[in-house]
Amino acid sequence: MTLVTPKNLGPTILYDDVMVSTSVAEPFALPTSSLGSCFKNVTAPTTACTIGSLTTGTTYFVEVQAANTAGFCPASPYASATSI
């Protein structure tokens, strides 16, 4: 996954939370496996991370929520991919 830094619209982004779900109808949550680099806050200016312990053939939905000194930004639109 690649994270894109938005235009300067306010305080500097401190980190991004990458949240995952297996259904767009289910709540998105931080990955529970510590095998990937998206396990905890992805500290800026990091622009990529990996999600570990995925099940082959499962479609995952991912959204990103940035945080700065003012709090959390709204979550991004989700993206999806199927693990191979």
Characterize the structure shown.
By secondary structure, the protein is mainly beta. It has one domain (15-82). It is built from no helices and five strands. Strands 1, 2, 3, 4 and 5 form a five-stranded antiparallel sheet that branches. Strand 3 (59-68) and strand 4 form a beta hairpin. The protein is globular.
Task: Produce the secondary structure layout.
Layout: E1 15-21, E2 42-43, E3 59-68, E4 71-72, E5 79-82
Antiparallel strand pairs: 1-2, 1-3, 3-4, 3-5
- Over all CA atoms, what is the radius of gyration? 13 Å
Uncertain segments are: none
Q: Looking at the structure, what is the overall shape?
A: globular
Distance between the termini: 15 Å
**Overall pLDDT score:** 84
The biggest beta sheet is recorded as: 5 strands, antiparallel
SS class? mainly beta
Oligomer: single chain
Number of alpha- plus pi-helical segments: 0
Strand content: 25-35%
Number of domains: 1
The helix-strand sequence is EEEEE
Estimate percent helicity. under 10%
Features:
mainly beta; 5 strands; 0% helix; 84 residues; five-stranded antiparallel β-sheet; 30% strand
Give a summary of the structure in a few sentences.
With 84 residues, this protein is an all-beta fold. It has one domain. The protein contains no helices and five strands.
